[in-house]
Every structure is written in C-alpha cells, then in structure tokens.
Amino acid sequence: MAATKILVYSLLFAFSLSCFAQETTNRIELGSSITAGSNSSWQSPSGDFAFGFYPLANGHFLAGIWFDKIPEKTLVWSANRDDPAQMGSTVNLTLNGQLVLTHSNGTEIFIDNSTFTSSALLQDKGNLVLLDSSSKIIWESFDSPTDTILLGQVLPMGTKLYSNANGAIDYSTGKYRLEIQMDGNLVLSAFRFADRGYWNSITAGKKNVSLVFNQSTALMYIVDDTGIVSSMTTEVPTPIENYYHRATITDRGNLQQWVYNKRGGNRWTLVWQRITEPCIVNTICGVFGFCSSPDNKEVNCKCLPGYSPLDPNNPSRGCYPNVMVDFCDANSTASDFAIEVIENADFLNDEFADLSHFRTTDVNECEKAVMDDCLCAAGVWYDSTCTKKRLPLLNARRSYPSTNDRVAFIKVSQMGIQEQHKKDSPSRVVLLASLLSCSVLALIFGITVVYNHPLTQPYIHAQQSAKPKSVEINLKAFSFQELREATNDFKSRIGRGGFSTVYTGVLTLDGKEVEVAVKQLEKVIEQGDKDFLTEVQVIGLTHHKNLVRLIGFCNEHKHRLLVYELMKNGTLSSFLFADENRSWDHRIEIAFGIARGLLYLHEECEPQIIHCDIKPQNVLLDNNCKAKIADFGLAKLLKKDQTRTSTVVRGTMGYMAPEWLKNVPVTAKVDVYSFGVLLLEIIFCRKHVELHRVTEELLQVDEGTQVEDMILVDWVLCCVKAGNLRSIVNHDLEVLGDFKRFETMTMIGLWCICSNPTLRPSMKKVIQMLEGTVEVGVPPEVVAQIS
C-alpha cells in the first residue's frame, strides 16, 4: 500500500517536472497587470487555461481561472467570489512581488501578500503559482480552491471546497461544503445548518488523509500514509489526454466529476457523482421544503402542507408558514389544528431536529402523539418507531422506490390549510369566468382599446403610481396617507436613528384597532421599487418569538416606511441602565431570548441574515418584557454609503467586531461579538463605555494591580484574571445565590469577543453553553491576559 501511494505522488511529480521546462517560457513578470473589461488575460503555455477577469451576467467580474479553449469557458477558481469587481478594476503583480486585486473604487485585496515573488506562472494544469528568484513555488491557487479541483491537484487534511450559490448564475459561496476534516474523514455537509453532514468517507482515525485527482489515470483517490484508502471515481473515458477533466461540488450539494472532449466535444459530460439519491442532501429544498426525485436525477422541490414558497421561481429556497401559529398557545383548541398525512415520506435522520422516539406498531398512535405534543411540529412512523420533530422542519422527502412502509405527519393550523387551498384552487369567480369567456371577449376587447388609447394613458399611469404595491407574503401594503393619519401627521415620535425615525400610531387591522410603530426610512436603496420589495420580502418572511414582527410597509413614490408591532416597554437600554432593580432571572431570560433570535437569523431562516448592529437600543421589550430583536434585515434597505462595503464599516463603536476595521470578509461572527458585549452589559448592568469613570479613582483589582474601569470589556478581563468576580457582586444577593451561572455567563461573553472570529462560538453553541449542555472553558482572551 505504501508503494501505491508513492506511485500516485511520483506520477504527479514526474508530470509536473516534464511540463515545467516548457512553462517557464510563459513567465508573468513583475509589473504585469490585467484590467477588467479589456479582454486581456494571462495564458497557460498550452492555452488550455487563462487567468484574468471572468465576466458575469450582471456586468461584474471575478478574478479567476477558466478553461479557455472551449466555447463554454468554465470557471474553476476565483479570488473574489463573494466580492465581484466592476469594470476598470485591475489585477497587478506589483514590483514588490504582491498579487493584488484593486477594485475600481480603489479598495485593494491581496490575493497573496508575499514580498519574495520574482515572477508568476499559470501552469498547464490550471494552477496559478508565484515563484521566487530560484523558481521555487511560494504560493499557488491549488492551495486555496473554491468549488473545483483539477487534474494533478491534491487536497490535504483541513482543505475545504464550497459550492456556488446558484450554478453558473451566482458564483458566491453557497451552502454546501466538501471538507477533509482533521480526523481523517472526507465529509459533504450543509455547513450553514450547524454543519450537518449527509455523507462521509468513513476514514476517521487515519493519518494524513488527502484527496488526490490523479494526473495519469484521471481517477480520484482517498489516500493516507499507507496508500490508497478508497477509489472515488471508478471509470473515465480514454485516452485521458483527449479530455479536459474537473471535479466540482455543485449548488445541489453533490460532488461530481465531468469531462469535455477536446476533439469535437460541445459540452461537459458527467462521468461520476458521489450522491446518487439527491434528496438525501441536507436542506436541498430549504426550510419547510419537500423533496422528491423519482428518477434520482432531477430534484423536485415543493412546500409541505400549510406552507408557501419563499420564491415561486426558485422552489429550492424553501417555504414559509401560511399562518404563524403557536401550538402551545393556551387559548388554542384541538380543532384549531390538523394533521396532514403524507404517505411514503419521511425526514432524514437529524439529531438536531428529533424531539423524541418511541416504539409502536400502531401508525395511528404515532399520529395522535404528534397532535397531542404542543412542542412537536411533525412526525415520522417507520420500522415500528415514531419519531417526533421540532421546528424548523428540514429535509422532508419522498422515498423511492415506493414501499408504503413509512408515513410522515405534518401538524398545521386549519387556517393555514384554508389559505393554501385558496392559493391552489380556482375561485368561483374564476370558474364562472371560464364558463362565460366567450360572451365577455367583446367587452375585454373594448376595455383593451380604451386602456391603450393615447387620451387615457396619462390618467391610467397616474392611478397606477399612486396605488401601493403588494408583496406576495402576509404583509399589508399601506398608503402614505393611511400612515400619516395613523401617526397624527407623524407627530408622535418615539425614536430616531441614523437612517430612520420611528413614530407610534394606531391602525385598524382585521376590524380591530392595533397600536403600531411606524419606521420612516430616510436613506434607502436608490435602485427602485423592485429592490425595496425584495428586501421587504426577506424581512417579512422571518417569524420568531424573539424578533419584532413586521406587519406591513409603504412603497409609494419616494416614501419607504415599515410598520411593526409596538413594543410598549421600550428598549433594553432603558430597562438595563435605569436606576431601579433589575431581576437577575429576568436578565437571564432576556439574554436567552436575544441568543435564540440571533440563532434563528443565522441558521434557521432562509436566506441567512446578519444583523450587523446588535446593541441594547436594538433589543425591544414587549408587553410581557420578553426580548425581541429589532432592525434586522435593514442593511440592504439602506443606501450603499450607509451599509457595509469594503471601505465603510457598519454598526456601533464598542459593539463592533474588529474585523469591520480590516479588509476581511464579514460573517455572522460579527453578531456573535456584539452579543458578547451585550451579554456582559446584561449581567453586569453596566454600559460598554462609561465616560464619567475616567475621572474617578482606579479600581483595585488585586494587590499591586489597578485598572481604570471606563471600558467594560477591559475591566471584566482584569477582574477575571484577578479572580475577584465575587467581590464585585457582593451587593447583589440574587447574583450571589446563583454565582456559578454568573461566572459561566461571564466566560461565555468573553468567548464571544475573541479578536479572532474563527475562535468565537456560533450562536447555536452559545445557547448550548448558556443551557449548560456544552462545557465552557477558559476564553483565549483570558489566557492571553494571564500569560
């Protein structure tokens, strides 16, 4: 076996040596550059590959590598998949030896920041390399793949491939990942859903595992220290050199190998794929989606009963409930709910979604158990076992071939089913119209003539522009006049921010007067109605008890307003920093509520939402003083100069993660950082910065050590280091009685504010730590302080 592995690598090495002498003639010298839109590129010696600006359908560009000799110029690597460049952007191999992408607005991204580069080269195998003065490779694109691997490429342990978001339409990072984990397993996972894997190579425990795309055989192997562990590909067309080869993780979560005949071929041909049953791929049809694939080739996505598609044009994006319902509402009765039965269907096994299991040979007993458990949203009966599922519902699928040995139960509200029937069934008016269609053709013709007559056009256009547009979700479109009257001509202002003013008002909804908060946006996107409505849809499709509910909107002329439920108890800031006593248990409950709301935004709603401005002013308290996050999803509604770009930061100083100030991608971990600061504020009842303390005496934290306690985070770190947390809460008997939890929550807050975002926990792990199901160790920031 060891000899086999040596053979695999020696073949790769021999090929690279034979090609290198020819490739040296295509060196890219220091000072070379490429401009987006100029059609210039750096070619490999054979001309098979090119590096330059790959044009996208929206007019933007990716700095990347593609197959260049075929009509279908297929992209295989890019340096800026999540930050497309515009016309006029450049890639430069600077005189200092750095490979730099410079956007048209002047922002620089270092593809490689080495200063030892003497030249560059695009190899015939599609690998862009930087070379030092002795022609030694000091950087290569093969070391940082995107979604594709090529012949001769080796993926060592720790390497990850990420799918595109939407095939050849959207090349940004998608939701699927191929990873060679450090335990030796090769894993396919839906990484945006708590790293839920749906296939692995079962090679855990082996050392130095790699995935090799062999140059001489065009087969993919999993190898370790002993040799070939497993052959992924079984057969490819020959002779190998007559074909182009690539392996890609697709936007459907599959790892596939493709070939393209160099001699007269006109398309890529699939020769191998890892997943042969596409419905086993996690979240392939999104949240509340239902997957079926009779031929195990094409995926058919639709919604579970009681749910409707987020995007009718893209069913795989998932679904939303027709009617939001709380199954545990004390005011509800059994008649409010129903069980929808789907034969020959189930949910993929998922420890995160499974509520409980019990053995029963009676399918009706399983159905009753689903109905009776208010925490249960669905269930599956299979192999004499009933499995109850919690929300959100993921990975529902039809089983093939049909065996009728499993049944899925979906609990829905009766009102939700009625709403769905309204959408799915033709109304009586439509049926009557179809019967009378012949008799009304003349009338339709007459109306059409009048409508299109030049004399009527100005009046018709005026009426259309004044009418508020509706969104195909459960949101009400209000006119500007309605909201003006509801807010008493916008006189009852209750808040103002950098981009909006908030007023209270009263609206009549479903025959009842409802108090609302009307947010008037002042710096909104300029692209027009379509973009505004798209982003309102995203906000409107979020449903969680710890998020402020959006009721409706106004999109009339230049007026952009959002109508929310009114939170009568104001902001967390007002509650937290008031003089009166704040219950310790209530503060814990608030922290949990915020964490659950953020977890929903990050992992459970589709698409994922990063809040970008978590702070006490953006957490509101309802009538029962429950915490609800406000202003989520607003980032994309603001003008570009107000949102996060590569040059402008977003958020509030003190709560802002350090990566905002660096030229690095921003992820959901920025919200985790902000939550960490907020958590410390909640448990210490202190603002993150208290300027009045600058003139006070320094705080004595231990013998010989003093610290100015103006900045909360620094103060807490010093207190933890000195081990005197108990002494600073001696005045609070509630906290002293629950000191272990107080100490744990302090540590969780410090974990969240790690300067390195990769060390911060996800919000799912934060909740597990708060619940005590995951051990809370010593945060790195504390270790650094102590050392």
From TrEMBL:
Its EC number is 2.7.11.1. It is found in: Membrane. It is a single-pass type I membrane protein. SUPFAM superfamilies: alpha-D-mannose-specific plant lectins, Protein kinase-like (PK-like). It is an enzyme of class 2 (transferase). It comes from the Eukaryota. InterPro entries: Bulb-type_lectin_dom (IPR001480), Bulb-type_lectin_dom_sf (IPR036426), G-type_lectin_kinases/EP1-like (IPR051343), Kinase-like_dom_sf (IPR011009), Prot_kinase_dom (IPR000719), Protein_kinase_ATP_BS (IPR017441), S_locus_glycoprot_dom (IPR000858), Ser/Thr_kinase_AS (IPR008271). Belongs to the protein kinase superfamily. Ser/Thr protein kinase family. This is Receptor-like serine/threonine-protein kinase. It comes from Acer saccharum.
